[in-house]
Structures are given as C-alpha cells and as structure tokens.
C-alpha cells in the first residue's frame, strides 16, 4: 500500500503544469495574419524574421546563442521569446524562418505579376496619394541584350522611377551589363544560336548580337586564363614547399633563386579521338601532388581564316586583313595532330624554370610517347648539361598496354595450334 501511495503522489506531482506566461502561439499567428498594414510593421517584429536580419548587436547574438545552446529544447526557447516554433509555423502555413532571406541574384520574373504586385503594394513617394497606382513600363530603345530598361510611373503625378534589371560591370560607367556576360558564360557550349533559341522559348528578350557575344567570350577567356595561371602558380608553390620539407637534396641554387627538381607526367586530350583532331590540350602534372603545373593549347584551325579562305589571296584586301589577323590567329601548330603532345611538352619544359621555379628532371611517360626524345633534345640545345632529364615508365600504362596485347594475341590465336601441336 505504501508503494501505491508513492506512485499516486508521483503521478499527481508529474501531472502538474507550470504557469503560462506570454502570448500563446495561436494569438501570435492571428496578430500576424490579421495585420491590416504589414508593410508599416517593423520587420524585426515579424515571427521568424528576426532570425534572418542581422540587426542585433554582437552581445545580443552571443546571449541568444548561449541560451539556445544551454536550453535542452529549442522549441521551448522559441516559445518563451514569442516566436513561432517550426512545428507551429508549419501548422499555420508560414513555413520555417530559415526559408526567409533577402533576395539576391537574377530571377526569371513574369513582368505582369511584378507590375500587379508593385501596383498593389507600393505608394508613390512623390504624391503619396492612396488612389495612385505605380505601373511598370519598358523602354525598348534602351534595351541592351537581356538587360532591359524598366521604369515605374505614377498614375497621378506621372513621376518616373528607373528600375534597371542588371548592373554594369565596373560600376555605373561600365560598358557591359552583368546579365549579358553571365549569359555568354553559361551558353559557351551551345553558342549564340542556342542562347537565342532558349530566350525565344522562355519569352525573354533576345540576347546581344553575334559580335557583342564574341567580345564577351574573349573577355571570359582572358579571365579564365588569368585565373588558371594563378591556380597553377599556387600549385607550383605548394610543390616547391613539399620538396623543400621532404627532399631538401632536390633543391639547387640558380643565382639568387632556388629551383626544385620534381617528377612530372605529360598527358594530352584532343577534340576528337584519333590523330585527325584540329585542337589539342597538353598538361604537365606533378607526380607528387597530382596537380596541374602548366598546360599548352595547340590548334590547326582558325574560324576567321576559314571565313576568308574564299577570298583572293593575292588581292590587296586579303593581304591587309592577313597582316592585321596574324597576331591573333588561332593556328599555332604546324604539323600533324600526333606531334602536338611532343611540341607542347618542349614548350612547357623550356619555360619551367622561369615561370614555376621548378626543374622537371623526371619524365614519367606512357609507354608510346615520343615526347621524351623531343624534350631532351630541346633542353640540351637550350641549357646543355645543366638540365639533365631522365625517363620513367608509368606502371599503369605499361600494365594497360601489356594486357591489351595479351588479349589481342589470345583472340588472334583462337582455334590455332602451337608448334608443339597443343
């Protein structure tokens, strides 16, 4: 009987409720949804928005974070501060507070819906008449590609407020709009024609013209080359530090500079398989870190040269064009596509000391590459005995080629007997 009394007392004790202080979440939700003019309310007072807008002081944020950390139930903490919990917000259809953030970037927005929203929610800052409406207009003569010239006009006082859709690169006085540059970057794989079809299908304004599109691609290419060069220089610095710490004997003095001896492998990729590709890209990769240290692009094709190929090559007009075009011609290789790897390897190895402070003393080949002979001959002519290079075969390539030869030999000998009759 004593035990039963204890259980009853315990059950009564645990059944008691603590006193409630503050507003219940239903009352907070009703105040939020029934607000007659939510635009005039302080954003910090809206449920959940205070978690997004960083207007509190550092001390307040630290105290809030500490309370959240010390409180075993985050739901209780939100309720005690008069904020809807995640479960309560879901019940009233407000969603999570973490879904609310300041809008950034570019949006695909229906102009009619945007105009209706502005007309219903905004008031003219000049006349401030409750009956005035702000209408959204576009000035077609000022459109530049995907960057449109929009403006708001009050129906009462007719005051115009500009509403640009894209910033200019380089500030207000810049030449190109950011949206056009980004469109060229995103569409470089399917070209100007593909971008035009996409804009037509999405009911967007047409992109910039072909000439402007190509200018954007040229600037993007320059930026990509600059970024790639910085990445490869950082990779060379990391490799130098690795050699300095792990293999100090591989460091030599070259005047006032220190040069590290490293092992690299040379590999290339072509626009299409076989030895008929017009474009090839050759890379030099560190064996120790696996990072790309340098690259070279070789091309046998130029779009502008092809476009002027039908002109009279002896004519004065063609000669003037050729003289102006030669410094920027895309053709930088003479010979077969098979020779691109060897020629590029010579160029990369020859500039390694000047550009990377590295000496590629070990050449890891792929078993059938003729690049090593070309590189060794070129380095002997330029540096003499001061630049010694040795070759090592990649075990992976040797294994792959040996396996391929054995499988080919097995297929060729199928159904045949050896000399011993077996």
TrEMBL record:
Pfam family, one: Mutator
Signal peptide: none
UniProt feature, compositional bias: Basic residues: 8-21
Stretch list, region Disordered: 1-61
Comp. bias intervals (Polar residues): 42-58
Every Mutator-like transposase domain range: 105-416
Lineage top rank: taxon: Eukaryota
Designated name of the protein: Mutator-like transposase domain-containing protein
Species this chain originates from: Paramuricea clavata
């Amino acid at each position: 009987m004593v035990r039963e009394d204890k259980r009853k007392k315990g059950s009564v004790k645990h059944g008691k409720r603590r006193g409630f202080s503050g507003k219940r979440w239903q009352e907070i939700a009703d105040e939020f949804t029934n607000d007659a003019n939510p635009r005039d309310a302080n954003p910090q007072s809206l449920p959940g928005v205070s978690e997004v807008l960083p207007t509190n002081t550092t001390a307040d944020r630290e105290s809030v974070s500490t309370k959240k950390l010390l409180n075993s139930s985050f739901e209780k903490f939100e309720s005690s501060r008069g904020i809807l919990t995640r479960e309560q917000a879901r019940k009233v259809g407000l969603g999570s507070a973490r879904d609310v953030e300041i809008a950034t970037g570019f949006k695909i927005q229906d102009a009619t819906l945007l105009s209706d929203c502005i007309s219903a929610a905004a008031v003219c800052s000049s006349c401030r008449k409750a009956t005035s409406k702000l209408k959204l207009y576009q000035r077609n003569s000022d459109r530049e590609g995907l960057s449109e010239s929009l403006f708001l006009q009050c129906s009462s006082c007719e005051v115009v407020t500009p509403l640009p859709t894209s910033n200019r690169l380089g500030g207000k006085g810049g030449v190109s709009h950011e949206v056009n540059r980004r469109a060229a970057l995103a569409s470089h794989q399917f070209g100007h024609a593909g971008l035009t079809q996409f804009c037509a299908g999405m009911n967007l304004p047409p992109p910039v013209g072909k000439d402007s599109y190509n200018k954007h691609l040229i600037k993007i290419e320059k930026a990509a080359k600059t970024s790639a060069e910085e990445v490869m220089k950082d990779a060379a610095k990391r490799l130098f530090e690795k050699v300095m710490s792990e293999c100090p004997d591989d460091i030599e003095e070259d005047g006032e500079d220190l040069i590290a001896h490293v092992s690299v492998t040379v590999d290339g990729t072509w626009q299409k398989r076989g030895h008929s590709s017009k474009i090839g890209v050759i890379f030099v990769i560190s064996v120790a870190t696996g990072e790309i240290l340098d690259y070279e692009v070789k091309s046998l094709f130029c779009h502008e040269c092809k476009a002027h190929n039908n002109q009279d090559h002896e004519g004065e007009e063609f000669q003037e064009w050729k003289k102006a075009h030669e410094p920027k011609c895309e053709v930088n290789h003479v010979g077969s596509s098979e020779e691109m790897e060897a020629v590029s390897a010579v160029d990369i190895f020859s500039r390694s000391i000047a550009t990377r402070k590295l000496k590629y003393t070990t050449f890891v080949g792929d078993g059938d590459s003729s690049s090593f002979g070309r590189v060794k001959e070129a380095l002997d002519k330029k540096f003499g005995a001061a630049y010694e290079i040795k070759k090592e075969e990649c075990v992976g390539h040797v294994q792959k080629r040996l396996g391929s030869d054995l499988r080919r030999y097995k297929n060729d000998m199928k159904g045949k007997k050896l000399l011993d009759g077996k």
